[in-house]
Input
Amino acid sequence: MAGLIDMIVNNPDIVNSIAEKEGISIGDAGSIIGKLAPILMGATKENLRGDRDSSDMLKQISDSQFPEMYDKPQETVQRGDLGDLGNIILGQMTGSKENSRKVAKHVEQQTGMNLDIIKSILPMIAPFIIGAIGKMAAPTINTQNQNRHASGGGLEDILIGMMDQDHDGSVIDDIGGMIMKQIFA
Output
């Protein structure tokens, strides 16, 4: 999952677009995004792994609009419906609006940044995360759609495997899950 997080955190177009939209420095935007991305990626992984229905999350990941949004961050942050769309995705990632608020509060404590700015960035970053997952998973999704009748694990298993440390021995993917459990405790 470190590769997926890097796709967000180390993407200057995303960081610059959000900084410009929020009227904050690129460094501040990068700091906030650097804290949010692993948490939300971990929450997405937990959604796919957990007991609650992940069908809406799978639909979002399979939706081609999100990789396109990831590829065009300047246009994406200017969308009038980005907040509403991002909040829907956040609800699927974190499970509730209250949990999203807890994420924002945690990031405020970690960064010292303004809580309102963090709350504003949360729904902006969520579609980029789904877009990065969709972009990386596109070949798998296409194969899965072609082989719907094949037996074995479903798309959830494939995505969890893809998000699970990229098999590089890094613990970064588990950090988001641990933080989520701590935040929501």
